[in-house]
Structure formats: C-alpha cells, structure tokens
Write a structure and sequence with these properties.
The protein is α+β, with helices and mostly antiparallel strands. About 40% of the residues lie in helices and about 15% in strands. It is built from 5 helices and 5 strands, in the order αββββααβαα. The chain has helices at about 5, 50-55, 60-65, 75-80, 85-105; strands at about 20, 25, 40, 45, 70. The strands form 2 sheets. It has a 3-stranded antiparallel beta sheet with strand order 1-2-5. The protein has a two-stranded antiparallel ribbon with strand order 3-4. Residues about 75-80 have low confidence and may be disordered.
C-alpha cells in the first residue's frame, strides 16, 4: 500500500482506520482508543506512526496486537514523489556549505 492509499484509511466518516508502523499496516478500526481515527492526543489514522511510536509511553507490542492488513511501500519512494521538505533542506545546507567553502578558499 502506498502512503496515498494509507491516507484514505483515516477512520472518519465510516472509513476503516489503518496505521503503519515499521512498514507494517495495522487495522485499529475496532479499538475504542481510535474513535473516529484519532488516538489522543494527536495520532491520526491513515499515517505512518513509526517515529511517533518511538516516543510513545507504551511499547510496540500494543500496536502489534491489531490485525495486519498489509505493508507500506518504502519511505524513500514516497518522499521522492511526495515532495518531502527534508530533502530540500538537506540540499540547501549542502549548497550553502559548498558556497562558504568556495568563498573561504578565494
């Protein structure tokens, strides 16, 4: 499943609620903790929650109890097609460093 497809499973308006963690997609629809696709305070179904789960107060085993419904395509593929700002920032930093080094060598 792609990131765009996952986004359609946001748990709102009767849609199922799916979340991705470490490339695995889980169905959290039937959990009372995911009512309307929202797990308080700010985790929304239809997203990759790998980074958020690393900071969560509970262990990954909690998520792994939910039914597996698929796998998520690689993040790098999504970032290239999705226009991630992280890549843009990295390029800007490299350009600035190269320009500064060039200026200092003159």
């Amino acid at each position: 499943m792609t990131f765009n497809e996952l986004a359609g499973y946001d748990g709102q308006n009767g849609r199922r609620a799916y979340v991705a963690v470490n490339g695995t997609i889980y169905d959290v629809t039937d959990s009372p903790h995911w009512a309307n696709g929202l797990h308080p305070p700010d985790h929304q179904a239809g997203h990759d929650l790998t980074e958020e789960l690393a900071k969560a107060p509970h262990v990954r085993a909690v998520v792994e109890r939910f039914p597996v419904v698929g796998t998520l395509e690689e993040k790098a593929t999504s970032q290239v097609s999705g226009g991630s700002g992280k890549m843009t920032i990295a390029i800007i930093i490299v350009v600035v460093v190269v320009a500064l080094l060039t200026f200092l060598m003159l």
